[in-house]
Design goal:
Layout (H helix, E strand, L loop, with lengths): L1 E4 L11 E5 L7 H17 L3 E7 L2 H5 L11 H10 L4 E6 L2 H4 L3 H12 L2 E6 L13 H10 L6 E4 L4 E2 L2 E2 L2 H9 L3 H8 L4 E7 L4 H4 L5 E4 L9 E8 L6 E8 L10 E6 L10 E11 L7 H18 L15
Parallel strand pairs: 1-4, 2-3, 2-5, 3-4, 5-6
Antiparallel strand pairs: 7-8, 9-10, 9-14, 10-13, 11-12, 11-14, 12-13
Helix pairs in contact: 5-6, 7-8
């Protein structure tokens, strides 16, 4: 997949495509249905399928304190889009400059002059441009009036799966209550987080549970608590483990961190990029009065995770193909 970071990186060969535009947080089944439709239309027209998205997401720029927890960081989102067969991604930096662009200028500069879009898919509530003044009607008007043929607009409306509305909000709600099965149902795959292993405070070693510490680089996490997990990115089958995701209240931790204790594994993991698949929520994160109490609880958590993950290595039950 070709990643185009901003209009200034467009090449002449990038003109001419079918496109969709949005945040696509989580790349859930609804997004993937849109991508399938877009790819099919692109093949019919002989044009590449392009996904236009933003970093940060608009809400994170306008109201960071109220922005919802990210389901996927940029790296995770781009990988999921690539896995769906999308040929190009246009990444726009959402900052003061883009936030003040007039809606008509946005269409002209990006969709017409820049990408040469011939077919555009949008959602029901898609608004764009300064003051959210741009809408479906403006897109249809400018697409039809363009001198070089312009573009057709299609509204993909609300996507449902098994009579249920699919949305990033519903995935977040399922994760927040620890319903990993429902989240996987909406995503079409088990929920995972990625990160690079860094140096922690090594307190886990002192109580017999060394952990791989992954900085999530998130202001808010969609998940909190202790989980049975499978770790991808190491040789062999996924490795069973127990993980805590949160702020580590027992040690007055700051910021969200994912700490993973891999069973029967003692290799150096510093600097490795790992993907953690969440299989079962065991409990909420809590504060303990002593490290001995914490050690005893982790021992119970590890035993529960081992018992649940006894069949580790099987294909994920919820994995759904994009195409």
């Amino acid at each position: 997949m070709r990643l185009i970071r901003g209009l200034h990186n467009l090449r002449p060969a990038d003109r001419g495509c079918v496109a969709t535009i949005g945040n696509f947080d989580g790349v859930h089944l609804g997004h993937r249905a849109v991508f399938q439709r877009l790819i099919a239309r692109g093949r019919a027209l002989g044009l590449p399928a392009t996904v236009i998205t933003f970093e940060p997401q608009p809400m994170e720029f306008f109201a960071p304190a109220r922005a919802p927890a990210r389901l996927t960081r940029l790296r995770e989102k781009l990988k999921a889009i690539l896995d769906c067969g999308i040929e190009r991604a246009m990444l726009l930096e959402f900052g003061p400059r883009l936030a003040t662009v007039d809606a008509r200028d946005f269409v002209q500069r990006l969709l017409l002059d820049g990408l040469g879009v011939r077919f555009l898919m949008i959602g029901d509530d898609f608004r764009f441009g300064h003051g959210r003044s741009g809408d479906e009607a403006l897109l249809r008007t400018m697409g039809a009036a363009a001198a070089d043929g312009g573009f057709e607009v299609e509204n993909h409306h609300t996507i449902t799966h098994a009579q249920e509305r699919v949305s990033s909000t519903r995935v977040r709600e399922a994760l927040a209550r620890g319903d990993l099965e429902q989240a996987a149902h909406l995503l079409g795959r088990p929920y995972r987080m990625q990160g690079r292993v860094g140096h922690g405070d090594q307190r886990g070693r002192t109580i017999g549970f060394p952990t791989a510490n992954l900085d999530l680089h998130r202001r808010v996490s969609p998940l909190h608590g202790v989980f049975a997990v499978q770790v991808h990115g190491l040789p062999g089958a996924p490795r069973p483990a127990v993980a805590n995701i949160g702020t580590r209240p027992t040690v007055d931790g700051q910021g969200y961190r994912l700490e993973v204790h891999l069973f029967d594994f003692d290799q150096d993991l510093y600097g490795r990029h790992l993907e953690v698949e969440f299989s079962l929520k065991l409990r909420d994160e809590q504060r303990f009065d002593s490290f001995e109490q914490l050690r005893r609880q982790i021992d119970l958590d590890a035993s529960a995770a081992r018992a649940f993950l006894g069949g580790v290595g099987r294909a994920p039950a919820h994995e759904t193909s994009c195409l």
